[in-house]
Queue: 2 jobs
Job 1
Amino acid sequence: MKEKFKFTFNLALLVIWAVLFAGIAVKAPGFLSYNYIVNVMLRNIVEIGMVALPMTLIIITGGIDLSVGNTMVLAAMLGGMAAAKASDIAGVLVTLLTGAVCGLLNGVLIAKAKISAMVTTLASMFLYLGMARGVSHGDSVYSYTFSEYMGTMSFLGIPLQIWLYVLLALCFTVLLKKTAFGRKLYSIGLNPHATKYAGVNTEKILVIIYVLCGMICALVAFIFLGRFTSVKYDAGTNFNLKVITVVVLGGTSINGGIGDMKGTIIGTLIIATLNSGLTVLNIPIDVQTIVQGAVLIIALISYAVVNNRARKKRIIKVEAPDALS
Amino acid sequence: MGKKKGFLTTEFYLAVFLAAILLFMAVAAREFYSINNLMSLLNSFSYILISAIGMNLIILTSNIDVSAGALISVVCLSIAALGKQGIPFAGLMAAAMVIGAVLSTLNGLFITRLKIPAIVATLATTQIFQGVLPLTVDGSIYDLPASFTWLAFDAKIFGIVPASVLICLIVTVAALLFVKYSRFARKLYAIGNNSNGARLSGIRVDRTVVWTYTIAGALFGISAVIIATAGQRVTTTMGSGLEMTFIAAVVLGGTNTAGGSGKILGTVIGAFILAMIAPAINYLGISPDWSDAVKGAIILISVVVGAAKYIKKKRVIDDPAARERSAA
Amino acid sequence: MKKRNLLQKMVVGTLAGAMLAVSFTGCSKTESGGASKTESAASAAPETGSSTSEAKPAASSGDITVAMLPKFKGENYFDACKTGAQEAADELGITLLYDGPSQDQATNQKQVDILEGWIAQGVNVIIVSPNDPTAIAPTLQKAQGAGIKVVTFDADAQADSRDMFVNQISADAAAKGLLDAAAQDLKAKGYGDDKTANIALVSGSGTDANQTAWENAIDELLATDEYKFMIIQNKETDVYYPGTDETKVNSECATLIGRLGEGEDKIQAAIALSSMSTPALGAQYQSASSKPDANVISMTGLATPNALKTYIKDEENPLTSGVLWNCMDLGYLAVQTAYQLANGTITPDAASIDAGRLGTKEITNQECVLGDALIFDASNVDEFNY
């Protein structure tokens, strides 16, 4: 039964997406070109979409990571500086290392010190932002060969980062859906204590997913730096909220335990279509923000309705059969 | 009750820490204690604290409001439009509180009626607040009359202390008394600790939460007045990003974001520490580029210290992360 | 319970409807709460009311669409530029699109996002004031590759990524204007070669091409005999980079005001390099509790006259003069240049341009300079309306 309801929610999302896509395509013929859809719409969303993947895992465990944008910027920045001083290889290593360390710090504090995820990542958000500002003195850090390659190369006519995204999306879908690891995540989200007493090393799993998230942020850092050719310390502002918007739009419950990767992927597509579509329609940036907020609210409400009904059905099945209809 | 004692020490540690910084500044950079610097520090402390108190009440119920910054922007612009007409300060203050309360009540209704988790609901309203502003006013509102900037330019107690400090003092004392003696505040703690339990024991949880948002909104409105009247121009982004500072002040003060515990006094100290970081760093001759990093490090360290105590006390049975989930 | 569900469904329905209405009717001015009261204030700005989004590409002279991208929206300076740009667009009968990031998100990414939309639409000319000159270059080159002319105004981008730069003022002239304004005031207050003055600068974001150029030009001028009595003691702490966020600018200016006063360890003159920080200096002085003695300090900076009017006219405020160029003319010249580049009247190599009401302006090295700095004080501040 639960399966069925989830299916309808994803389907509803797909319909919303299709309507938006069609509507925009009708209003603005410039939108419906291969070049625009692939090289602008999809290419622009890749960073958010990629980070949304590990973020989904984190949110399913009942956690959250507010520091993603700043982790990304810090990784890009230190990497760029290392590349400028030493070599590209140093840049790559430093970027990946920074991402991993940032994620590890979050993970250890959340899993071992038992500080709530929101507080930890709020504090580390300031810390990473501040470090990026401090080491760069507010200046831009510029792209280097490897990140340029990641941000601008195409393979078979499709930008490299889209291939990467597709690959990662597949991996994460399988990870969450088909592996024991994925099931443990749901279990932690629904009841961490029961999971722990069932013999699952919850602490280790939490640390792993936060480090994973940091690593993906580092990967995204290359793409971001390559695409924009430079990065400034405040480039990650609001990035965290955008990523969370995508995940929540995809039907993952912020309370943990509920959600899937398909939803996140469709959520990514919806935001991509809105972002690029509204720009093509010449709708000012301010209205775009409102529309995004409205879409999020609609998704939340429809999810609340569906979820409410599903829950009611499970709980009051016997006494109140009429709630089914 | 044992828990209560534990939190008293959190505030104690914080106060000691604050005193240490103040002492250090007295030795390392005497200039920090110039009247002007202290007063401008107190001014920013005022608006951070007033909003942080509102945020604290919300967090006590185990909810959160990330739209506070955007909401303040909306209020700033609204009262600037009124101020342009020459409406005096009292009118502006009343309007700000009403607008703030109404918008925040909307947040509360969203959260309780539709059962949307607070962080997501306010995330959505943030985007709407942010988007509406530039639509209604093209650019900024400037060249505001003297009646608008009265609070910042002329209203000085004994000719020195900005009146915003007085407002802040009133709000703080009221909040301290309110949290200590009112039954409403007790309900907040009950809801934050166990909202189902609170409901079963006869507390109207949803209604209480909505009222909490309303009160917090009015407080955000007061902060908005202090922020907006600082100059003769009000732009559309006056409050952006401030919500994180408010939340940080609350967290630094030892309030658990899982709800149900924490004191206003801690928030007062937390807000003061956050308000003084930027000027202190400047007076120490360090580039302001490092102020955010210092801010983050201080929050992180204080939270870790707090958690370390907590873990020692209560192993296994009750960890905050779990409580957060069960409360949500 | 059943009723509740129905209610929820209705809410969903209404919201969905509202959202579709918003997204497909374009931008019908959203009325909301107290915000609608700002209408009167908006009209106080010199704005004709033709919002950009309403201006659908219509069949007009040559069907030329010019898209203009400021560093950020919502501040007097760029508003004035927009007014001038709109004036030129109306005069020439072309379509002007105007959009930009909000003030707190004045970053290169946001600008690139907007540009990509315009490139996809195939506008004819893009006029841009980049937040980061190097970072925006690849996107501008992409636009050029798509046959779009690129004009920079207010701040330049990398030279190989634009066809023309409409410069309001040369860096030397701007630096000289600012230092002259400060020096004049300082000398009147008794400073000079035998009594040096410490100065502090309030810059913008740190990556801005103009401010960087002005800072460098100021450094060079400070080394010359004429200005050597003005000294920047410590570059780390005496040059502020508050960015473009109003609240942050205010608080950093307040810190600076606290450091003003007489003596070696104090600062005697504050010069603001952005149109946001200058009024902030004035406001923060006004609200300071124990005001530093106005007879020993001086403040000046770049800003629109409207933003400084009150402070300049207040005799007790040490902010006695402001420096600027004519912003409306800048917007006007930018659109004129854009139009003439698009219809082929001029090429990037042209030596001059006949810019409508501004007359003929010279072009050297693909750079068209508007004019000299304009120093305004209490005597003439009322003559301006932007």
Job 2
Amino acid sequence: MANQPSIHAGVRALARLKKRRRSEAIFRAFGIAAIVFAMCALAWLLGSIIGTGYKAFYQHSLTLEVELTESILAPNGSRDPDTLRRANYRRIMQEAMFTRFPDIEGLSSADQRAAKRQNFDIMSTSGGPNYIRQMVFKDPAMVGQTITVRIPTSDIVDQYLKGNLNVDVPEVQRKISDRQIAWVKTLRQSGEIKAGFNKRLLFSTDSRDPELAGIASSFVGSLMTMFVTFLLAFPVGVGAAIWLDEFAPKNKAVDFIEININNLAAVPSIVFGLLGLAVLLNWAGMPRSAPIVGGIVLALRTFPTIIIATRSALRAVPPSIRDGALSVGASHVQAVFHHKLPMAAPGILTGSIIGMAQALGETAPLLMIGMVAFLTEIPSSLTEPATALPVQIYLWSDSAEQAWSERTSAAIIILLMVLVTMNGIAIWLRSRLEKRW
Amino acid sequence: MKHSLMIALLSSTVMLTACGGDKPAETRAETSAVKATAPSEQTEIRIVGSSTVYPFSTKVAQEYKNKTGQNVVVESTGSGGGHKLFCDGNDMSTPDITNSSRRQKSSELKKCKANGVGGVVEVKIGYDGIVIANSRSTEAMPLTLKQIYMAFAKDVPVSDTDCTMQANPYTLWSDIDPTMPKTKIEAFGPPPTSGTRDAFVEVAMEGGAKQVACLAEMKNSDGKMFKNIAHTLREDGYWIDSGENDNAIVQTLVNTPTAIGIFGYSFLDQNGDKIRGAFVDGAEPTFENIASGAYPISRSLFFYIKKSHVAQKSVIKDFALEFTDEGTWGPGGYLEEIGLVPLPDAQRVKYRAAVENMTPYSQ
């Protein structure tokens, strides 16, 4: 008692105390700094993606009067669908633009040709003619009429109007000429070129032309793949976890299986792609690029995540629950399925949803089984060629046109929103169902 | 309330489990059915191969789909991967067409024959230049192939006549040639897996090495050694592998004005307001110079058709005809608009005839 002050209140004791407090303060400061750093990195990432991506959600389009000249579309007077489909719609649109800007007539002939091409280039040179083609194909009676249509402008004009092009360099070095700028300004002032919500981004298939490209086919492909993944990985994963945790005998063989499930979770995902290629495509002869194959491969990838999550959720249920059930005469299966599993459900669902979210972001295994592809149609069954959203992002990011950069970011925003929604559901389920002891 | 929700959830889980039981079996049966009737069922045209040809192939696929309603699937697997899949067999589940940013190797053609592929039609579609570019905010940098070799080889000869090799000592461009700027040598280029990198090494680096007198001699006496010297890029941080994403390289160049970047011509074409291509051996990377061959770093692009598939899927030939239409691949065609350098007239006539008659090629 007498020497207590010398331990806790002496000069050395005070120095020790100071040192301890300082190290605690340093640790806390590091903790805060780490969080601040992580938040800044996240904010910077989101900021840069949203900052470029939001522009892809609106797009400029052009209102134009188009004469569906019979002599160009159906010179022999027939309305045969094949003739109508292969007719020269570029010519129709070139003429329509020329009619809008008749001043080109006054230029010298060499200059006139260049001017006509630049004039046509204001609209989407693939989308404009095709819009008319699909209209005429559907209703051949339209040939000979004059109609007013709204078609997207070319990606270059769109980028110019969004202020993404550097126009301070000499004319030859940029994709938009002085003449085109003058025309675009005229059309903008008269309201013929207007900005509007970019529906194509959400509802169109992929396209080689940025102004026409959309995520619909890859989104549907991702949904189908995830559907197969869920149907396979969830029941099998949860079942395996229950068996391992509750019913498996404790012996070397089961230990070996457990170790390998943990190892499986650490295998790089491309390996699952190689497995899919060797077993599902080459040996089982399943179709290439099909969502069913993608789903199976990603199910293998998700499977260990679900097992691990389920087992930890099952272990978190107090043993008294099961013991109580057994003591009143429930069978082992009843004790697990009636009492233990419902209590572990929030943890299982959270783990599964996070596993699914991981699978949704995978590209590497899909490369091996042919899902890194360009499609001209939205897949309608599990065996038809499909692609996935992250693959779409990868392919867009590697394209030359400047307009792709904002579309890539927009596709990332959409993918992130899906992931946030999935995680949100996981959190909601947990808070809704969680039991506290 | 909580309890009933839990029960609902659990029962839905059980239901899903039950579904999970039969659904895959069902789809599996469907799959094998599709497989059994594959030749008549699989109607889409399947294309694989080079990521360099991918943008052109997809453009044609899109136009063809618009014109005919025919579904086309184009995969980007790389040239080597494409040939491997293409030559894997002759049944209808293998690809109909493969794209390539180089000529098919004789070993690949042999493999095709060994696996029963009956006749391969070769179509050269045009040229792609490989551009060495820097930011518009700095001076243009004219280069020679020899300077490119000196700047980026791992080992360089001590002098033009003495082929004792030394680790590349150059850190500034002015070290190589006093007339060049006093800036750090720094290049962002494609990684070893890229076809652009292969072509850069084969054409630019090897071409530069040949301009060194003693290395030119070595090429004749010890070709293997020469190749090794010419093809190995330096790894001391002056050449930086930048991944497959050429857009990222363009962005880096804008932010680092003294650096140069190496990528395909279409990226220069689309980003001419931000970057400029260096003159190589006095030629500017322009459409005309690449087409005429005056610009030294270029390569030919190809696609290959499996002739035996055409009998069962005539749309393959129709697609190839669309690809080789003057409005597609000719001067002023829609592929030129997105950066393909067209073939000279005589060659277009030759390959168009090969498509029309489905003439198999031999090496």
